[in-house]
Amino acid sequence: MKAYMTNGTVDFLEKLDEKYTDINFHLMTSNSGALAYYENDEKNVFSSGRAYEIIIRKGTIQEVGYVIMNNIPVTGDGRVPFEDRFKQRQNEVDMMPGFQAFRLLKPLKGNTYVVFTQWASVADFENWKNSDQFKKSHKGQTTKPPAYAADKPFITEYHMLNKDD
């Protein structure tokens, strides 16, 4: 399964949603703009966007929620250990209250993976960050970047855009 995303204005992304009625777009907004995301194996409709292979897929993306995307540049040699690390701990987050969806997205071009999590609310995400499960899953990580890191990771956060509003 593939995942696709692109950024743009809310108006532009809503027009894409109207044009491609056969695609289930998930529209999101942040302080820096809007994002459209969808999953399928058929086609990429974005002329300028990003494409990914879904390595791990948990839960169903909801139309209401809070999305955190941890964007992690990974070296070529680091891809396998990076993916294995997530495969070994993939069941830890989905038991948390407020969890909705998780995706580990491998870039089809470039080196920046996306760790996508969706929560019912910001508070649910914060509870996850402060949980014993979070500490366990991130145990052993220090301030020094792991060997697979190609650059400094960055986080993007979004709130789902209600298409009916």
From TrEMBL:
- Superkingdom classification of source: Bacteria
Single GO MF descriptor: monooxygenase activity
PROSITE patterns the record matches: ABM
Keyword Oxidoreductase set for record: yes
* Domain ABM: start-end pairs: 66-158
InterPro entries, per the entry: ABM_dom, Dimeric_a/b-barrel, Heme-degrading_MO
Q: What is this protein called?
A: Antibiotic biosynthesis monooxygenase
Against Gene3D superfamilies, the record matches this protein to: 3.30.70.100
User: RNA-binding: is it a keyword of this entry?
Assistant: no
Keywords, alphabetical: Monooxygenase, Oxidoreductase
